[in-house]
C-alpha cells in the first residue's frame, strides 16, 4: 500500500512489474536527462517531496536521485501521459544527470546524426 | 531477423518483450512529445527512413507515426542512453503528436504544478 493519492493511482497503467516509465527533463533548456522507473510509492514520494525518486529494478529498492552523488533533482512539475504509463518530470538537475558523469544519459551514443 | 546494424543491435538492452522505450522530443523547443516502443526492426526502419516508426504492443504491429493522421515525425537525430534501454528521437512533429489531438501526450494531466 503506497501513500499515493488514489485518484492518481487509478489513472496509472502499470507494466507487469507494477511500474511506469519516468522521463526527466531539464526546466528551461528542455534537455531530456534520463529515463527511469517508478512504482506508486516512488511517485508518491516524488510528489510529496519534489525530489526525483525512482524504483531500481535491478536493486529492487527506491533511490532518490543524487542521494549519494549530490546530483539531485528538484521537481518543478509532474505530468502523466495520455495512456497513463509514462510520467514526465520537469526538474532542475544539479550537476550531471548520468551516472557516467555525462550531463545527460543520451550524450554518449548517437545512432543517427542530424543532417548537415 | 531485422535489418538493424549488428553493432547497434549489440548495444540494445531490450525488455522481456524485446523492446526499448523511445522518447520523441521536438527539435528546437525541446518539448517531450510522446513515449512509445521499438523493437530492432522499428529502430532500423526509423534510422533508414527518418520517419518515426514504432511497435504497437497492443496491436502487435509496426506503425509509422502520422501514417493515418498525417501527423508525421521527421527524425533529425537518434540517441541511445547509457544503459541501452531508451532511445531519444529529436523530431519535427507535424501537427499534434498525441492521438487525442493534444500537442503532446503530456498536456492533459498535470499531477504536480510548478510552484508560484
Automatic annotation (TrEMBL), chains A, B:
Gene3D superfamilies: Phosphoribosyl-AMP cyclohydrolase. The keyword Zinc applies. SUPFAM superfamilies: HisI-like. Mg(2+) binds at residues 81, 83, 85. Its main location: cytoplasm. It comes from the Bacteria. Its EC number is 3.5.4.19. Residues 34-106 form the Phosphoribosyl-AMP cyclohydrolase domain. Its cofactor is Zn(2+); Mg(2+). It is found in: Cytoplasm. Pathway: Amino-acid biosynthesis; L-histidine biosynthesis; L-histidine from 5-phospho-alpha-D-ribose 1-diphosphate: step 2/9; Amino-acid biosynthesis; L-histidine biosynthesis; L-histidine from 5-phospho-alpha-D-ribose 1-diphosphate: step 3/9. Binds 1 zinc ion per subunit. GO terms for cellular component: cytoplasm. GO terms for biological process: L-histidine biosynthetic process. It catalyses: 1-(5-phospho-beta-D-ribosyl)-5'-AMP + H2O = 1-(5-phospho-beta-D-ribosyl)-5-[(5-phospho-beta-D-ribosylamino)methylideneamino]imidazole-4-carboxamide; 1-(5-phospho-beta-D-ribosyl)-ATP + H2O = 1-(5-phospho-beta-D-ribosyl)-5'-AMP + diphosphate + H(+). Keywords: Amino-acid biosynthesis, Cytoplasm, Histidine biosynthesis, Hydrolase, Magnesium, Metal-binding, Zinc. One of its GO terms (molecular function) is phosphoribosyl-ATP diphosphatase activity. The keyword Cell cycle does not apply. Zn(2+) binds at residues 82, 98, 105. Homodimer. NCBIfam families: PRK00051.1. Catalyzes the hydrolysis of the adenine ring of phosphoribosyl-AMP. In the N-terminal section; belongs to the PRA-CH family. In the C-terminal section; belongs to the PRA-PH family. This is Phosphoribosyl-AMP cyclohydrolase. It comes from Saccharopolyspora spinosa.
Amino acid at each position: 500500500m503506497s501513500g499515493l493519492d488514489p485518484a492518481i493511482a487509478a489513472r496509472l497503467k502499470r507494466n507487469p512489474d507494477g511500474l511506469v516509465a519516468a522521463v526527466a527533463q531539464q526546466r528551461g533548456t528542455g534537455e531530456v536527462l534520463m529515463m527511469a522507473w517508478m512504482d506508486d510509492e516512488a511517485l508518491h514520494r516524488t510528489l510529496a517531496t519534489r525530489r526525483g525518486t525512482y524504483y531500481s529494478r535491478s536493486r529492487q529498492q527506491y533511490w532518490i536521485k543524487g542521494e549519494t552523488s549530490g546530483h539531485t533533482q528538484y521537481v518543478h512539475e509532474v505530468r502523466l501521459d495520455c495512456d497513463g504509463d509514462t510520467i514526465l518530470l520537469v526538474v532542475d538537475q544539479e550537476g550531471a544527470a548520468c551516472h557516467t558523469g555525462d550531463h545527460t544519459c543520451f550524450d554518449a551514443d548517437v545512432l543517427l546524426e542530424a543532417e548537415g
